[in-house]
Each structure stands twice: as C-alpha cells, then as structure tokens.
Amino acid sequence: MGNLDTHDWFAHALARRVPLAIVAVEYRLAPEHAYPAPLEDCLNAWLGLRAGVVDPRLSTACLMVAGDSAGGTLAAGLCMALRRDGLEQPRGQLLVYPVLTARQHLPSMREQAEAPMMTVAGLMKSLAGFVPAAPQRNDPCAMPLEAEDFSGLAPALVLVARVDPLCDHGLAYVDALAAAGVAARACVGEGMVHSSLRAFGVAEVEQAWDHMAAQLQRWAGD
C-alpha cells in the first residue's frame, strides 16, 4: 500500500534532522507486481544515483539506504542484490521494523501474533502477494534472513518495535551481520508497535528519529 504522497512523512522526518538529500522511490506494488519487480525498481533507482543521472547535485559516492516495514525489506534486499552483482555497498542500511523472513519460527511471531497495527495473519497475507512462489521465499534478496552468508554487507542500524511480530526479524538480522563481522546495531522501542514512527511528539518516537538521523550523519561523515 501507499505511494510517495502517503509516505512522505518518513523522508521529511529525516530531512528535518540531518542535512542530507532524501531520495524516495515509488516502486511497483504487489500483488499486481510481485517480487522481484519492487526490488528491481529500487535497484534501478540506486544505479541511477550511482551514475549521477537522478540529479547532478547529488553525490554518487555518499549514499545510504533506508526504509520502514516493506521499505526496510527492500532496503536490506537491495544490499543483498548489490553483493550478488559484485557492486559497491551503501555506506549504511537503516531498517525500521523490516520483514526479513516468510517463516514463522522466531519467538516474536508467536508472542506478538495479535499485536496492534501488525498481526501475523495480516503479515502472511501480504507476503503471499509479495512472494507468491514458495522458492522465492528462500531468496535472500527477497527475504534477507534466508541468506547463508552475511559478510560484505553494509553497516546497519535496525530499529524494531517490541510489540510487533517483526521484532525478532530485525534482532536476528543484527546478530547475523555482527557474527559475519559487519558493524550492526539494534535500537529497540520498548513501548512501540509497528508503524509507531508516525506518532510524532511521543518522547520514545522522537528519540528514535533522533537516533536514526545521528547514525545517518555518522555514515555520511565516514
């Protein structure tokens, strides 16, 4: 669901906090356009930025990738696709409560199955549209936690909401990256639910935005 207009709040919230250009990608949506179409759109946008054809004022080297929920899935999948193709990684990947596996084995998928804003039943329905073919669910570019190797990927900051079936998706990804020698950190919103970043003015949410912006600034300065 959504487009550039419905989700401009994400770009604006970061742009208010950090002096970086934010380039939003309006990728094709499932189920009309299932995987790999959404990822191909993101990859094409990324290659355009690298080539300097999006806007001549933008850096072709100081690039990071970010996204929330399905956008976080695509951001992590983009890093996997770039590694697959032997291309340079972003300076960092900022993921906010991403979907990273179609399996239901992680504890938060049971413990938070009926959480507000995101239920396991709703998640599985969405995944059936995004990755309708069973073999695709083992493709790490679609579901990044299915990778056998996590080395060589971009440094990561992963924000998760504790009251969310996806909580352990992000935590498991951070653990896998760290075990492979990739700099990766998790930020846990203890009182947050899926989509909490829309709750502007709430102290924990504002702190999460500040934390993410600070990490982008550090990556940009490295």
Question: What does it look like?
Answer:
It is a single chain. This protein has 7 helices and 4 strands. With 222 residues, the chain is α/β, with parallel strands linked by helices. It has a single domain (8-221), classed as Rossmann fold (3-Layer(aba) Sandwich). α2 (37-51) packs across α3. The model has no long low-confidence stretch (mean pLDDT 97).
Please describe the structure with a list of short key phrases separated by commas or semicolons:
single chain; 222 residues; alpha/beta; Rossmann fold; 7 helices; 39% helix
Major sheet: size, sense and barrel closure? 4 strands, parallel
Query: So how many helices?
Result: 7
Number of discrete domains: 1
Low-confidence stretches: none
User: Could you give the count of β-strands?
Assistant: 4
Oligomer classification: single chain
> What order do the strands of the largest sheet run in, or round the barrel if closed?
1-2-3-4
Measured by DSSP, the beta-strand proportion falls in 5-15%
- Gyration radius from CA atoms, angstroms: 16 Å
Helix share of residues? 25-40%
Task: Write a compact overview of the structure shown.
With 222 residues, the chain is an alpha/beta fold. It has one domain: Alpha/Beta hydrolase fold, catalytic domain (Rossmann fold, 3-Layer(aba) Sandwich). The chain has helices at 8-15, 37-51, 70-84, 107-111, 120-130, 167-179, 203-221, and strands at residues 65-68, 93-96, 156-163, 184-193.
